[in-house]
Amino acid sequence: MNKKPTHIQPTLPAGAFPSVQGMWKQHQPDAAQSLLPTGAPYVDERLRGGITQAGLHEFFGGAKADSHAAAAFALLLAWRLPESDAGIFWISGDKERQTSGRLYPYGLSAMGGDPACMLLVQTADLRDALRAAADAIRSKAASAVILETHGNARLVDLTSTRRLALAAAETGVLALLVRGDAVPMPSAARTRWRICSAPSAPLPGNAPGLPTFDISLLRHRGGTAPFEARVTWDHATRSFFDAPLSGGLSAIVTDTKTGPASRQRA
Amino acid sequence: MVEKQRGAMRLAACDPAAHALGLTAGMALADARARVPDLAVFDHDPVADLNLLGWLADGCERYTPACMLDPPQGLLLDITGCEHVFGDAARLAKDVHARFSRHGLSCRIALGGTPDSAQAKARYAARAISDVPVEALDGGDKVHKALRRAGLRSIGDLAIRPRKPLAARFGKAVVVRLARLLEEEDPRITPRRSLPIIHVTQNFAEPISRTNDVLATIGMLAGGAALQLQERGQGGRRFEICLFRSDGHVARLAVDTGTPTRDAALLMRLIRERIDALSDPLDPGFGYDLIRLEVPLAEVLANVQVGLETKIDTDAAAAALIDRLSVRLGAERVRQFHARQSHIPERAALERVAQSDASKADWPKPVLGEPAMRPFRLFETPQPIEVTAGFPEGEPRSFRWRRHVHRVTRVEGPERISPEWWRHPRGYTPGNGSLTRDYYRVEDNEGRRFWLFRRGLYDEIERPLWYLHGIFA
User: Fold this and answer.
1) N or C: which end of chain B has fewer CB within 10 A?
2) Per-domain residue ranges of chain A
3) Residue ranges of domains in chain B, CATH in brackets
4) Residues of chain A with pLDDT under 50
5) pLDDT, tens digit, 9 for 90 and up, residues B164-216
6) Using one digit for the tens of pLDDT, what is the confidence trace for B352-402?
7) Contact between B363 and A128 using a beta-carbon 8 Å cutoff
8) What is the percentage of chain B residues whose pLDDT exceeds 90?
9) What's the rounded Cα separation, in Å, for the pair B107 and B73?
10) Three-state DSSP class for A197?
11) Could you tell me where the DSSP H helices lie in B251-313?
């Protein structure tokens, strides 16, 4: 994919989009680029430190109902940013709000985030949402910009994601693209993840526990091999940790689909 | 034009040709038909008249922002300090006349020191206020008749009389009105729209129509407004562009900002966004011949030194971005969370327009060692679900939502949330429509966590229904 710009260069008139070319050079893998660790040792080890902060990352829901898990994971990842209090833009369309409901500030604060730092942008359609996201990333106004889309949208293609990726690489804003109920298509994202809800370690009285996800890295531009992991979010430290394999899973041995077997495959 | 008045069709208005035939307003239609058998009659439409008057008033705002309707047929303009744009008041009046005649409208224009005097002179086509008949006092038929009987026919006759006997005989209102007509007392007009704090105007000898020219002019005006704002130590919160087309049409564009600003470049960006966001693009027609920038709303903005620090202030960048997105998408689409006192989950959290400078709410801190008791996502309207649950007030065992059956493996609850009976006019009585909700946190066999509730207790309602209200991470 990195060869793409040299491939399209001859078709461009001389001097067209010079800044794009420049930005693309900046976008090349660079050891000095700051990485955002998830906090879970196993995942960070596989990612060699974390995900690139100045870049676009895609999160797909495993099943239709997992779009919420993808949204939650992206949001929690944004809270991992040291300066996440500078503001997080949450951009979604009318359709997403209709199908997925609205963000609930009491739930956000209970997970360790500060709802006062969230800025919600609701657009009429995806075209406006993509444009708003690009503007938000470019303006350096926020530390993270999360764009939520629902369904297989043709507008979210290589061109539009590259626009977001280049803007993020330029300004250092973490750009997260949540794609509920969609199949992966070619995009310019640095990493692509599939997120599923996972059974939590139960609390006394068999009560649901902390947010737990099965995450699988599908694609990494830096060359990291795909892997799967189960992580749990701890709101006290605002970080993920590797979900305990024993004990935590003992209560759900009946479930074969997302059991320990999938973890061993990684 | 005819209108039904007290059961009879009467003429409400007639054109000059009808006047020449001896028809007058107020005449019965039958009488008029008897005199002129081939009379063309139309229904009188006062609302359309008023709309036309409003449209004319919009157009007249090119002369002054202080413009007032004087129904049914008058317009009052306060041109104090505005004449110089046209040379003097007489040239301004000539311009008004020319523009009205271009639309086929006849008008009478009078200039006066007070609105009352100008209005009376225009209405009675008098050159001087002393020639205006006493009817201009608007005192009612009785007063006018009594004055005429006393030989006082015009305002000039009244002006030389002592006022006290007049007040004793006809009441104070007549004397006050007389003083206003004689320009002894200036009441000022009440403009249709509140006067802007600052307005900058650019007139053109020839109409301009190219968008670039219009934008360049607005940029120049913005610079002028920014200078004035700086002198006052203020920043505008709202800017309005009025584009006056040469055919009398007026287009208005308003731009709101979240924080006071006098940055002309920023303002221009917002205005470009605004023009891009128009659903029907600006139609310059034959061109704009006057463009005005108004600042109706301004707040204190201290002078700050810029240029020494190269780092962009994140707050300023966020405010600028919020303004841009609000202008493009509509202010109600860019929001922030806002807390409200309520026990009902969906009422406790609102979203408020981010541009309004609401103080940031304090949200509860997370409880250590306890998972979130509230979902991170909430459905505006709870989603109805089919639930298998223990009877009577047992935990849910499985439920069907969006054609998918979820088997519940972990559950915590109920958390009972009572209706806010103190908001209800009759207070709390079982079965008055406000039902208790029992909330459960559940996790299904696939690891998804939901927030369900049963609406109603079994002693409140016969068959309580179940809803899915939110989703946990």
Assistant:
1) N
2) 34-265
3) 2-44 (3.40.1170), 110-194 (1.10.150), 198-325 (3.30.1490.100), 334-363 (no CATH), 377-472 (no CATH)
4) 1-18, 20-32, 246-266
5) 888 888 888 888 888 888 888 888 788 888 888 888 888 888 888 888 888 88
6) 888 776 566 678 888 877 888 999 999 988 999 999 988 778 889 999 998
7) no
8) 11
9) 10
10) strand
11) 264-277
Query: Using 50, 70 and 90 to split pLDDT, how confident is the model at B162?
Result: confident
Given B314, B361, B411, which is nearest A140 (Cβ)?
Answer: B314
Instruction: Quote the distance between the C-alpha of residue B193 and its chain's center.
Output: 9
Best CA proximity match to A76, nearest among A100, A103, A55: A103
- pLDDT(B307) > 80: no
Q: How confident is the model at residue B430 (pLDDT cuts 50, 70, 90)?
A: low
Q: CA-CA distance, B399 to B452, in Å (whole number)?
A: 10
Give chain A positions within 8 Å (CB) of B313.
none
Tokens 């005192």 appear where? Answer: B139
Amino acid symbol at A230? R
What CA–CA distance (Å, rounded) separates B24 from B462? 75
Lowest mean pLDDT segment, chosen from A116-130, B109-123, B276-290: B276-290
The three-point CA angle B281-B287-B288 to 5° equals 90
From B448, B383, B468, select the one nearest A63 (Cα to Cα): B448
Residues B375, A104: C-beta atoms closer than 8 Å = yes
* A62 in contact with B, Cβ within 8 Å: no
Residue of B nearest to A63 (CA): B446
Does B337 contact A210 at a Cβ distance shorter than 8 Å?
A: no
Say how far apart CA B8 and CA B16 lie, in whole Å.
23
Instruction: Record the tokens describing residue B192, joined without a space.
Output: 């249709």
C-alpha–C-alpha distance, residues B169 and B139, integer Å = 12
CA distance B280 to A264: 59
Q: Tell me the sheet residues that pair with B385.
A: B466
Q: In the structure, what pLDDT confidence band is assigned to residue B350 with cuts at 50, 70 and 90?
A: confident
Please give the Cα distance from B409 to A249 (Å, whole number): 12
Closest by CA to B69, choosing from B192, B157, B180, is B192
Q: How many CB atoms lie within 10 A of CB B174?
A: 21
Alpha helices in B6-87 (DSSP H): 16-20, 29-35, 46-60
Burial class from Cβ neighbours inside 10 Å (0-12, 13-18, 19+) for residue A186 reads exposed
Interface predicted TM-score (ipTM) = 0.80
Tens-place pLDDT, residues B336-349 = 888 888 888 888 88
Which residues of B fall within a CB distance of 8 Å from A251? 409-410
Nearest residue on chain B to A209, alpha-carbon basis? B371
Cα angle at A215 between A163 and A185, to 5 degrees? 35
Cα separation, B398 vs B128, in Å, equals 91
Closest residue in B to A259 (Cα) is B446
Query: What's the Cα-to-Cα distance from B455 to each of A207, B21, B128, B392, B443, rounded to whole Å?
Result: 21, 78, 79, 13, 20
- Compute CA distances B126 → B116, B160, B376, whole Å: 13, 19, 75
Q: Where are the alpha helices (DSSP H) in B27-127?
A: 29-35, 46-60, 89-102, 115-123
* Distance, CA of B118 to CA of B130 (rounded, Å): 12
pLDDT > 70? residue B6: no
Output the 3-class SS for A77-108.
HHHCCCCHHHCEEEEEEHHHHHHHCEECHHHH
* Better pLDDT: B292 or B25: B292
Report the distance separating Cα A148 and Cα B53, nearest Å. Answer: 49
Give the CA distances from residue B72 to residues B13, B45, B46, B118, B189, in Å, rounded to whole numbers and listed in that order. Answer: 11, 12, 8, 16, 17
